[in-house]
Amino acid sequence: MGEKVPIQLGKSPFDFNWELVYIAYQILKLMSTIKNIIFDFGDVLIDLDKIKFQNRLESFLGVHTPQQRNLIEDIFIALEIGAVTIDEMNTQISDVMGRPISGDKMIAVYNSMLLYIKPERFDLLESLKSQYKIYLLSNTNIIHLSWIYDYLDREYSMLNFDERFFVKTYYSHIIGLRKPNRDIYDFVLQDANLIASETMFIDDNADNIQMAKEVGIKGILHDPKIDITTSFEKYILTNT
Fold first, then answer.
1. What's the first-to-final CA gap in the chain, in angstroms?
2. What are phi and psi of 3, to 5 degrees?
3. Is the peptide bond prior to 180 cis by the omega test (within 30 degrees of 0)?
4. Is the dihedral of CA 40, 47, 132, 162 positive or negative?
5. What is the pLDDT along the chain (240 residues), one digit of tens a residue?
6. Nearest to 81 by CA among 187, 158, 168, 167
7. List of domains in the chain
């Protein structure tokens, strides 16, 4: 008798691609639970260069002590919650340094950390609006937000950024609250009438994410080295 030839069986209709089945299940599960997505702004939607800012600040102010550095950081935080005006910020920094500083130069230095918003990120926000309620929660200040609005007008002729992409935007200097303090998360949930377990929050700061999780929000720590348009699908699939 001749050598037996192996029989090639046809693929069974029950041989599912279980990986695809699992992914589909995860998407359906998440869509049934996540109804709201809150984005951070800096290093999520707009790129920042914090090292450039620190270098320019050091060059502008000159040599200063760790104590002076801490006092200046406190002044920036006060600006972020609307506790001081721009003029008051400049005056207080002058007092810390023991000499007058140029207000215009200080503003230019402060804005040096702001870079750009890639147009693909607008497309991402637009695509999500039909599936989720989209919000923005940012520690920012009147100086940075003014620069961003000017940038959006200059680069994209966009004058309605807040209303175009978000149900509501929450800027720290306007609401007088700041991440990672718990009260800002409680405020947003109450003001927007959101259920924490149905809400996803994407931020690049671990402390901000930790507090969000403590109030029951699904917190996602974003890596700024990976564009949000690339990483968002993974966030949806792996964070249920």
1. 60
2. -65, 140
3. yes
4. positive
5. 445 444 444 444 445 566 665 665 565 555 558 999 999 999 999 999 999 999 999 999 987 899 999 999 999 999 999 999 999 999 999 999 999 999 999 999 999 999 999 999 999 999 999 999 999 999 999 999 999 999 999 999 999 999 999 999 999 999 999 999 999 999 999 999 999 999 999 999 999 999 999 999 999 999 999 999 999 988 877 665
6. 187
7. 18-24+33-48+118-238 (3.40.50.1000), 50-111 (1.10.150)
- With vertex at residue 39, the alpha carbon angle to CA 33 and CA 44, rounded to the nearest 5 degrees, is 130
Residue type, 60: F
Position of tokens 């497309």?
123
Structure tokens at 206: 């671990």
* Burial annotation 144-157 (CB, 10 A radius, 16+ → b, else e): bbebbeebbeeeee
Decide: 96 and 65 in contact? Cβ < 8 Å. no
Q: What is the pTM of this model?
A: 0.85
Order the strands of the 218-221 sheet from edge to edge.
168-171, 133-138, 36-39, 199-203, 218-221
Helices (H), the chain: 18-33, 50-61, 66-80, 86-97, 103-111, 119-128, 142-156, 161-165, 172-175, 182-191, 206-214, 228-238
Other CB atoms within 10 Å distance of the CB of residue 83: 14
